[in-house]
Specification:
Blueprint (H helix, E strand, L loop, with lengths): L2 H16 L5 H9 L11 E12 L2 E12 L3 E5 L6 H8 L7 E6 L3 E2 L5 H7 L1 E4 L11 H10 L2 H7 L5 H13 L15 H14 L4 E5 L7 H14 L4 E5 L3 H9 L7 E5 L2 E6 L1 H5 L2 H8 L2
Parallel strand pairs: 3-8, 3-9, 6-7, 7-8
Antiparallel strand pairs: 1-2, 1-4, 4-5, 9-10
Helix pairs in contact: 1-2, 5-8, 7-8, 9-10
Bound molecules: adenosine-5'-triphosphate (ATP).
Length: 292
Amino acid sequence: MTPDLMQAGAAVRRRHTEAGGSGGREASYGRVLAPGQVDLTHGAILYLDDITVSFDGFRALNQLSLSIGAGELRCIIGPNGAGKTTLMDVITGKTRPDAGQAWFGSTIDLLRLSESRIAQAGIGRKFQKPTVYEQLTVFENLELALKADRRVRASLWFRLGAEQLDRIGEVLALIHLKDQAQRIAGLLSHGQKQWLEIGMLLMQDPQLLLLDEPVAGMTDEETERTAELFLSLQGRHSLVVVEHDMKFIDALTRGSGPAKRVTVLHEGSVLAEGTLAEVQANDKVVEVYLGR
Ligand SMILES: Nc1ncnc2c1ncn2[C@@H]1O[C@H](COP(=O)(O)OP(=O)(O)OP(=O)(O)O)[C@@H](O)[C@H]1O
């Protein structure tokens, strides 16, 4: 972690202690119980510092440090075995690192939380394969995702109100499935199933979305529409997209809004970071990845 961010984080925790909280890691843990409250005072939604993960002595992640800004859309690329999936696993609590720190905002210590707490805190993950409920309609899938949200369950006793119906309508429009709301999900194309699953994640309004190879198996047109969808989400959500498809990365990083950064992983560490053009022009990147 950069010294200024470390100091800033420590100051926030100190202020909390002085205000009567328990302070330190316990304070971070306590904050997770108030969903939706991620401290973005310092601009970063995710901060990983010096993360190492070993499997039988092999370092899948090797002192990896990474910072994602609030509202940012970040692409992560890297050759097979670079550590991309392991990185996602650390962020979501599936894999515990041997060393390092992982913060969600300035105050939520991810290494202290279970996988389900991390999801509740506002980190949603989309795996490569869509896992929608094939027998249910598109609408019912979204409805179920909404009901899986503890906040909604507690307040609505499982009955959808106007606000929730509006939210489902909004997400249906975002994922280009408004006309398909009553269609059985099993009949959707592969790309549409992927969008539906992204929609299901969106129903829970995660602040950080992790997307693992979201366009694998999509047609060119579906890939293009997925890029549009992600670009429309930036700002409201922060997105980390792991992808091999360079055309898709190109579409994402060319889109409107602030310049998008691409991070290149290699052998468990960050090899390069910059705009797509910058990393493509980087000799080390060409050697280990793009030139293969
Ligand atoms: N549970 C595990 N046990 C042993 N080795 C593992 C385990 N998980 C990952 N690895 C190894 O760690 C390295 C990084 O794997 P990881 O799956 O994170 O890479 P990746 O960048 O996602 O690769 P790909 O693009 O092929 O999905 C690989 O060499 C992999 O074989």
